[in-house]
Amino acid sequence: MNAKDEAFLKVEDLHAGYGDVRVLHGVGLSVGQGEICAILGPNGAGKTTLLRALCGMVRVRGAVRLDGVPLSGRSPDAVARLGVAHVPEGRGTFMPLTVEENLRVGAYTRRDRAAVRDDLERVYGYFPALRKRLRQQAGSLSGGEQQMLAIGRALMLRPRLLLLDEPSLGLAPMVTRELFGIVASINREERTTVVVVEQNAHLALDVAGQAHVLETGRIALSGSAADIRADEQVAQSYLGYRI
């Protein structure tokens, strides 16, 4: 980090929206290097917009810094080149392309071909099912396999920051648990910082070290994942379940 006391990801007074519609209103948060941070909250709270703001997909006012380097005002391509990989809601795989072609697209910013080959093997280590389907079109994969492919493609960037938007959407519970276990392994083994937006609060809080609850575009609550999960009032008021 450039400053001893600065978080790896630092967001300050972030405002964002679409046209005249304001979605985020002064959001601020910090994420340490190698941490998993969960972003929780009801539908329409601004969670997806927050991830889009971090990776340059929407115009913002405020400050976003990664390891002290400003991201605000940069294009998505420029943000990606700084090591930020975004897996959008709905996975965003290229359906007509094969599994291997999708993965290679993830390495489009790289010129180190030998290392790219090594990283393909690394991705197959995390997702063995993809190795069996190298020549298969992405559109023919199951939902769980498509989500694995989307995360694998993001890993091909060798990201320092991985942004995951609703990775469990539409997946069976068993597949979802497996997927979150792999995300935890990636974080643990590679020290990749992860920010995950997730409706399944239980799962997200299981793997995260810290969490922020968004409500109508503002941070309503921040704390350790363990503390937020253990607070019954928080669970009922913000997360939609009873402990």
From TrEMBL:
Keyword Nucleotide-binding among record annotations: yes
Pfam families the UniProt entry points to: ABC_tran
Keyword Transport: yes
ABC transporter domain location: 9-241
Single GO biological process annotation from the record: L-amino acid transport
Entry keywords, A to Z: Amino-acid transport, ATP-binding, Nucleotide-binding, Transport
GO molecular function: ATP binding; ATP hydrolysis activity; branched-chain amino acid transmembrane transporter activity
UniProt family annotation: Belongs to the ABC transporter superfamily.
Stated name of the protein: Branched-chain amino acid transport system ATP-binding protein
